[in-house]
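At this stage, I wrote out one protein, both as residues and as discrete backbone shape codes, and that material follows here.
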Amino acid sequence: MKSCFGYVRVSTIKQGDGVSLEAQKDAILEYAKRKNLAITEWWEEKETAAKQGRPIFNCMVSKLKRGDAKGLVIHKIDRSARNYHDWAIISDLADSGIEFHIATESFDFNTYGGRMAADFMAVVAANYVRNLKTEIRKGQLGQLKAGLLPWAAPVGYRNNGAAKLKTPDVIMAPKVERAFKLYASGTHSIRTLVVDMRKQGLRSHNGKPLHKRSIELMLSNPFYCGIIRVRKTGEIFKGAHTPIITAELFQRVQDIKSGKKVKKFTRHNHLFRGLFRCQHCGHALIGELQKGNVYYRCQTMGCATKTIREDRVNDAVVAILHNLILTPDDLACAHERLPSLLVPDAEGNKCTGLTLQRDRVTARLDRLMEMMLDGLIDGDAFQTKKQELLLEQRRLDEQIEIERSNTITEEVLRKFLELATNLATLYQNATKPEKRRIVEWATSNRTATGKSFCFEPSKWLTGTKAMLDACSCAEQRPNSRIFDPDVLRSLTNLEPPKTTNGDSLEPPFLEAA
């Protein structure tokens, strides 16, 4: 009785969980019994035979070449190989004296006709794979043109089945967005971002933390802003899924990664760093920690501007915000006249301008396709320019959506007034990054000279007082143009500060750095 190896294979691990492998083994054992062969060792593989390099198959071939068995028994020819390279290896084994048996097909490798028939079946198996690849690629291309991703969803998105949109993961999507924002802020390198994201709980689909290479690929993937890029071919398609980040944020990250924008790393996170400038030389004041206090000074040699303590600046900010607090009477007067205070709707013109810009980008995309078809531009340049135009198109779509959704209504003005009323309290209870945002947003013309400093409330704050002065005059119609429509529109999603239950004040417009 000759000793033989038994080789069984399925294309995927999922197929291996079924009965296919057992059925192959049963057929091989029945064949071996009829031919008086002894199966001394089984080789089981769960990997496609379309590509060469199967580890278990290669190990088995090495042992056959060493003479560990006299022959090899397989279920069918396509179970052994679906590519010409592996079939040539099997042919070489047969030429070297190793007996090759096929359990379900009556091919005799020792005869000319049997060998030719087996070669023909191997060609059919390889051609089947080639045709299958073509059909799969055709189906994938159709999905891509429809804006669907035919492969597994990236981190932050959920798989919903074949030919269905990927949807943002409610848990991981905000963490992905935070990773982009942190890197875009210039305060993180890839390595520090990896550490931070592990602490935040960003995980892959199998629950493992992301490594440096995974974070790099994530930050370079335009899928998160609504554009599908095929990594192998570089092809670009417009996605139909919901973006996690804006096109502007994605482009800012790419500029930092490519070196177009230099990342800034801050050693000392002082409250007013970079917010005040010297009135004499125009340079930003630098904060220094001395004996438990932070002092801001101009670093220019011989400059007359000296040191200014941080707590003095902080008290001045609180004072100016307190001076602009609205009284209950002010609010009552303002609420009565809300309809007359509505800013004339200027978004129609702005939306029209943005729509015209978007139409021009669409026309450029059409011209780009024509240049590609006429052979005036190569494939790589075409895909690069196409991604650039699709990002611009996505950015304009986002701006148009903002303009259309953030309509200036009475509700917007109510939120505006409520915020103005509680701004001083909001500032005092805010975290350091939030305080910086309030100072940037609520003050202007921040300068220092000698040992004194000065700054002014922003236009929207002074406009609030001017509005109330107008309200107090019964015969005078308030001038609604006193407000900048862009400022009011930016307040659409604001929430008033929390003042009960000891909750921290973290309104949505303040993003922690």
